[in-house]
Amino acid sequence: MVANRSFILGTLLARVFANPITPVPEENEAAVLSARQAGSGVHLVNCGNSYSTVVYCINDSNCNFYPAKENQCIMGISGLFKWEGVQGPVLKGCTFSTGVRFEWGISPLPNIPVYAEVGPGQNGFQTFKCFKDNKRTMYSDGLNQCKSIYYCLPR
């Protein structure tokens, strides 16, 4: 079990070192955001300091509203979830009410630039590339501003 955890963490780190992270200049933020096609996406979201949730967006270019119940998977902990690293011998993940499980492996390296690729994701149907987001507010739940910490797009 420890060997599997070491293998997964080693694989993530090897991927990061093989593909160095380069920052996206702030003036290119609009270009990055507009490059998101009208396809699906998954966001790893923190709502205030209260809770974390995984949000599936049918159309990632139009995903700034409170998600439907079947498109939101609230992490089963109180407080904010640590998105980075691995959980035991497997990738971290959350199972939606539809039965679909989304898993990710985000590099635990510090100081990763905004919009840099940080690791893989998958949901059993397709694979994703995950990126660090700019903590933009996606929606409000009535009490908290819910901000996108990472986003994942299909490969």
Brief digest:
With 155 residues, the protein is of the alpha+beta class. Helix content is 15%, strand content 33%. Residues 1-18 form the signal peptide.
Task: Note the topology.
Layout: H1 2-18, H2 29-35, E1 41-47, E2 51-57, E3 72-74, E4 92-95, E5 101-104, E6 117-122, E7 127-132, E8 137-140, E9 145-154
Antiparallel strand pairs: 1-2, 1-9, 2-3, 4-5, 5-6, 6-7, 7-9, 8-9
Signal peptide: 1-18
Keywords: Signal
Can you walk me through this structure?
It is a single chain. Strands 1, 2, 3, 4, 5, 6, 7, 8 and 9 form a nine-stranded antiparallel β-sheet that branches. The N terminus is likely disordered. The radius of gyration is 15 Å and the shape is globular. A hairpin with a 4-residue loop joins β8 and β9. It starts with a helix and ends with a strand. Helix content is 15%, strand content 33%. With 155 residues, it is α+β, with helices and mostly antiparallel strands. The chain has one domain.
